[in-house]
Specification:
This is Helix-turn-helix domain-containing protein. With 501 residues, the protein is of the alpha/beta class. The chain has 18 helices and 16 strands.
Length: 501
Amino acid sequence: MSTLESIIDLLTHRHPGAVEVLVGGTDRSVEDIRLVEQVDQVDDAPTNALVVLERGLAALTADYRFDIVVRRAAAREVAALVVVLPADVRVSLTALALARRAAICVIRLAPEVDLTAAVGTIVRQATDQLSVTVDRARAVSEAIDGRAFGDVDTLLDHVGLLLGRTIGLGPRPEDDDVLAVPAGAADSWLRTTRPDDADAGALLEMVLWRIAAETTRLSADRARAEQVSRRSAGEVLVQLVAADRPARAAIAPSARRLGIPIDGWHVMTRIEPDNLLEVAGDDVVAYEIRDDLAALALQAAASMPGTWHVGPDPAAVLLMWTGSDAPCQETHARLRRQLDFVIRAMTGRVRGLRLFCGTGSARPGVAGLASSATEARLAVSSARFRRRSNTPVYFDAVGMRATLLEWYGSPTVQQSIDQLFAPVADLAPAKRQAMIDTLCTYLDFQGSAARAAEVLHLHRNAVRYRVQRAFELLGIEEDDADQRLFLHLACRAQRLGEVSV
């Protein structure tokens, strides 16, 4: 049988400086634990109970209302009252006097103490001594029927208090001293210590089955909510990647509402299954596998700090990492290790699956998100061209230089670029090169005239004029994503290859 002294010692050890005995002795036994949210619930406390007052009742302690609480506790012969109070709040002197006469210990907990954790400590201290009764079983059923629990942890904390024992989730136990029932998910069992009394054990097992049903329901609801949220956010992410600038501006508010941090720094990864239909056997199975792979990619990536989102593009899995600041060298290294892990997880899930993976560079803002996605698509094309499957290919200054030169080396591409720059072929070489440099720098910074002006040592108005004039001469629609991408690649290839156009 637990004593107040042992419970107070444990609380003091767990929460040093936050526990104080205001009045009363600590040698009484504790036979029950009750958490009360209303004053009249004190009338239901059994003899020698430790009654914990919810935070909402703290306001009662300074006036006559706490006298009423103490009188009711004295009538029930409770062992102690626990209140959550700042140290500078004075407790009703008459209430303390009443508690002293009734041999009730009044214990103060500082407000910074997590009340659920503190009560859990008390329960664990007294677990072996608290009996399982029909009243406790009924209280659990009533709590489940009448209260909407937001998550499994809150449910288990609450019913654990009502039962006077710790209820947890874990694998199926090997020890006969642990009572357990399955709780829905694979290898997930509700577990608690088995009472010595056989009848109490049978009653407790019935209660656990009721708790397990609610645990399974909450877990299923959470899984459905996460799936809907992931799919909604994923659809918006795909729209952002595919949209032109005006459309992205219109989509941005929806993205923010869904929790996509579009204003941070982004690294986009594109993962394209090459033989999914072949390994799946039919379109329906292939669709199910693609959805499963998207969820798996998000799960595998999420162990790295930062925010991750996944987009279920029909032909690929789009994986986006977002950080609040530009990633440093260490963060880039961690990202690469994490993406290696993601690819291994995906290929490990589907035997024989062949993936092509490309990753863009870190870019800020919603325009940067789209640019990084474009780079990821180009990196995937490079991976396919080189047949580098099941390994990420990165769009960076070194890796993509050769790719761009190879791309420009195609006669068809050269002809297309010649046609693109034909309207400015008669310009003096220096003017033509200045125009290309301005366009390339402007596009490198996702259309920011201010940032391009800093690099080119020009006034931003001069950059805007040059860019607008270049678009007019070349017949390019800036809001057309395909034309803008081709122009960007043509400028990059021309600068890298140092060729005349």
